[in-house]
Specification:
Elements lengths: L1 H11 L10 H5 L4 H4 L9 H21 L8 H14 L7 H9 L7 H22 L6 H75 L1 H27 L6 H14 L3 E6 L6 H22 L3 E9 L2 E8 L11 H12 L3 E6 L3 E8 L5
Parallel strand pairs: 1-2
Antiparallel strand pairs: 2-3, 3-5, 4-5
Helix pairs in contact: 4-5, 5-6, 5-7, 6-7, 6-8, 7-8, 8-9, 8-11, 10-11, 11-12
Length: 368
């Protein structure tokens, strides 16, 4: 039953791979050369049986060779050449079999091996002239048609392989771009939500402490929590649509409010510089991440933020007097800062001592 099922699938097709299209069906018109000698004289019963047997053997070889590559196609080329050799003394139109054998050379990937096989096919056709005493015009169809067909098949196969490789490279590039975009979105969401959720947590804790002692102050804190949550929602929506941009001054104001809630004094010294939008966005996100870390982990009482221009380089520093471990490793936030700085041709450095000092250096000519 399995044999019959395989035969059914073979007959049902597809007979040709999608990459070659439908043109190979048209190439079968070359078999008309095989029938030309019988236009003037009808074939005998023996000739009809031999032609039928030849086609029954050749046609499966022809369709199968499109599915094979390299060494696996050589036996098919050999059998096709053998059929041409066997028919040569009886039918001049059998030279068309050498044309098909020449076109099969395109299934060999190595170009030198493909052209060597093509040369062997043509040489075998040429040897038949002295071997069988055939007229030289026997070679005309093989040389004039078989040679360009073989060369065209080899060149076309090479171009097709190049296109397939290019498509694979494009898929790899698209895949890498997708991964990079996912990482960017992950960093942005981390920076956006980490700061705001930390602020909301602090204010919620404060509201819980004030619930019985000072209901009015508790209501104010709850109102601040609502405003922070709405602001975070708006920023996330903007980030998703790709139009998020938080100005540095706005971020400084948000940082002051967050630090004040945590009992941290903020001092700022910002030079009045005109910044490209991309640079300002990186600074705003860096400040947000730094303040989030201070509120969560540092236990600081003071924090200073400064921005200045030094010999054509923008220097942005955030320093606190809290707890920091010497030799600390970069987490998601610091890694995100480093990647954003590197994207603009800058760098991020930090020093852990009595507190944590972050220094971000960016070229003032960074693109907008």
């Amino acid at each position: 039953m399995q044999i019959f099922e395989r035969l059914r699938r073979l007959v049902a097709g597809p007979w040709l791979p999608a990459r070659v299209g439908k043109a190979p069906y048209l190439w079968l018109l070359f078999l008309l050369f095989f029938l030309l000698p019988y236009v003037s004289a009808l074939p005998s019963t023996r000739d009809v049986l031999l032609i039928a047997a030849t086609m029954a053997l050749f046609l499966p070889l022809y369709f199968v060779h499109f599915w094979l590559r390299n060494g696996r196609v050589l036996p098919l080329i050999g059998v096709t050449v053998a059929l041409g050799v066997a028919w040569a003394p009886y039918n001049p139109g059998a030279s068309t079999l050498f044309i098909f054998a020449a076109s099969m050379c395109g299934a060999i990937d190595a170009r030198r091996a493909a052209f060597a096989t093509l040369a062997a096919v043509l040489a075998m056709a040429a040897l038949l002239v002295p071997l069988y005493g055939l007229p030289l015009n026997y070679l005309v169809p093989t040389l004039l048609v078989g040679t360009p067909c073989g060369i065209a098949a080899i060149m076309d196969a090479g171009l097709r392989r190049s296109r397939e490789q290019l498509l694979r490279k494009q898929e790899e590039v698209e895949h890498m771009a997708t991964i990079a975009e996912r990482e960017r979105i992950s960093r942005d969401l981390h920076d956006l939500l980490g700061h705001t959720l930390s602020l909301i947590t602090l204010k919620a804790e404060l509201a819980g402490k004030l619930f019985e002692r000072d209901p009015a102050a508790c209501r104010r804190e709850i109102a601040d929590i609502e405003r922070s949550a709405r602001s975070a929602l708006g920023e996330v929506r903007s980030a998703v649509t790709g139009y998020r941009h938080s100005g540095l001054l706005h971020e400084v104001a948000s940082a002051r409010a967050a630090l004040l809630s945590a009992g941290v004094e903020l001092r700022t010294e910002l030079a009045p510089l005109v910044l490209p939008s991309a640079t300002e966005n990186v600074l705003a996100l860096a400040l947000r991440e730094a303040v989030t870390n201070i509120v969560r982990h540092a236990g600081a009482s003071r924090c200073s933020v400064s921005m200045a221009s030094e010999t054509g380089t923008l220097v942005f520093r955030v320093v606190d007097d809290g707890r920091a471990q010497p030799g600390m490793a970069a987490g998601n936030g610091l890694s995100g800062m480093q990647e954003r700085a590197a994207a603009l041709g800058g760098r991020l450095a930090w020093l852990a001592g009595p507190g944590l000092a972050l220094e971000l250096r960016l070229p003032l000519g960074a693109p907008a």
